[in-house]
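Students often ask why we bother encoding 3D structure as a string. The short answer is that it lets us treat folding as translation between two languages. Here is a chain of 174 residues written in the first language.
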Amino acid sequence: LSLNDFIAYLANENKPGVDDSLHLHQCGRVEKPYKAIYGQIKIQDICALYEKYGKEILEENIRKYLADSDINESISNTLTLNPELFWYFNNGITVTVQRFESRAAGSTSNEIAILECSGINIVNGAQTLGAAYKIYQQSPDLIKDITVQVKVISLEKCSTAFRQKVTEYTTTQT
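And here it is in the second language, the structure alphabet:
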């Protein structure tokens, strides 16, 4: 292993995921101890992101998508039979990014935030994404107005240990 290969490995290790924008609605912010933003995101937007990048946005997700499970059937049923209740019943999605820059878009500062993100990685929510994506592939209009709670955590000034704990704890704590 050459020094250049090792440096390239370290650079990749510190920047999983993809670069793109996320559009959040009804947002709030956390600045300390680490920078984060939370709100709602359209299920259709998350599905489009997955369609564009595939498993690359799930690189650090511990559980991955479990295709045939009671949980995913329940998620699908809520999306199709009770879409107005989905936001209330679903645990949401946790996304880590290397960094994000946000700008408001709308009549109030928290109505809509557009995040320009580097290193997008969905660390919790693979079941939600997978179940929604199956519906999205067949009928994207069916889920076009459904939103899900999302938490976007910047890892810009965080330790590797913190990043690993976010991934582990958001997946295992109930």
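Translate back mentally: Residues 6-12 have pLDDT under 50 and may be disordered. Keep this in mind for the problem set.
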